[in-house]
Amino acid sequence: MEKKANTITLFLEDGSPEGIISAEVDQWTGKVLSFRSGMLPDVFNLEKLNKAGVYLFVGPDEDNPLHSVVYVGKSDNLEKRLKGHELLANDDRFHRIFIYFAKDENLSSGHITHIEKYLIQRLRSLKTAQIKNGNDGVAVNLSRPEKSQVENIIEKLELVLPILGFTFLTDSTSNRNSQAVRKAEFELVAHDGRVKASAYEYEGQIVVKKGSLIRHPSEATSSLRKNTLIYIDSLIAESQIGEVVDRKDVLAFQNDVAFPSPSAASDVICGTSTNGRNLWRVQGTQLTYGEWKKMELDKATTK
Predict the structure, then answer these.
(1) pTM more than 0.85
(2) Are the C-beta atoms of 297 and 275 separated by less than 8 Å?
(3) Average pLDDT, the chain
(4) Can you give the pLDDT at residue 172?
């Protein structure tokens, strides 16, 4: 689906980017709030929340620093539910809360039940967070108009959540199969040709392609950062990286995996601290990623 331009208004309710943030999308009746869990009393003073809505509790995953721990919930009366929620009372890992409700209060129990189930299942399928929910939510029957309304709500939530820092619902694989979004293809060869990888740039990220080989983590050097080793372990646990038949010195990507920078990708692939801007080269050439990026910037600034 082609992405459309949107106007999103963020308002710092208390003047702090770390405080209460409200977000609204142009021509949408929904409203979202993001805030530290300790600010819940301030939120109740700010907004009447005796209405239906969906909420998320978010905190760091102690076993994987690149992931979050998330609990998804819903209620016909957000204020009453949140005031008595046992997770907030007994688990201090949840540092931040996200709340969605409709300004026109036109949300039914069926709407929020469907949204809750979708979010839980979406998070489980993406494997981008540890889900604290013990079940997958409850299935509900909605009319065609209701389904259309809920799909629009979900579309807006998936748009707003990353802007507020909740990136775990982002599917970085969407639209990757479209060659139109790929500005260039890259390749990396290291360790006397034993390690070979291919990648492309998508929305500012480096996406390493399925089948690319990485140095076995048991051979990683001491310069490789601990967080990178932890991330490799998580990729293995999630079956994003797996063994190669008749090869003990390498592992292989089982799916396309996105990295925030060329060096983040090359560190994982080479098993050592690297400068990915020099290691990655435009496929079939000797042009480095850094040189290619400079050319792209020069073209952009001389139009």
Answers:
(1) no
(2) no
(3) 89
(4) 55
User: How confident is residue 146, by pLDDT bands cut at 50, 70 and 90?
Assistant: very high
pLDDT tens profile 2-27? 567 889 999 999 998 889 999 999 88
- Report d(CA 160, CA 101) in Å as an integer: 13
Alpha-carbon span 251 to 237, nearest angstrom? 13
Domain residue ranges of the chain, discontinuous segments joined by +: 8-169, 179-301
Q: What is the pLDDT of residues 18-71, one digit of tens each?
A: 899 999 998 888 999 999 999 999 999 999 999 999 999 998 887 776 678 999
Pull the structure tokens for residue 200.
């492309």
Please count the residues of the chain: 303
Largest CA distance in the chain: 64
CB 267 within 8 A of CB 224: yes
Q: String of b and e for 109-148 (b: at least 16 CB within 10 Å)?
A: eebbbbbbbbbbebbeeeebbbbbbeeebeebebeeeeee
Q: What does the alpha-carbon distance between residue 299 and residue 302 come to, in Å, rounded to a whole number? A: 5
Terminal CA-CA length for the chain: 29
> Rounded mean pLDDT of 167-173?
69
Starting at the earlier edge strand, list the strands of the sheet with 129-131: 8-12, 21-25, 30-36, 96-102, 53-60, 68-75, 129-131
How is residue 162 written in tokens? 């990353």
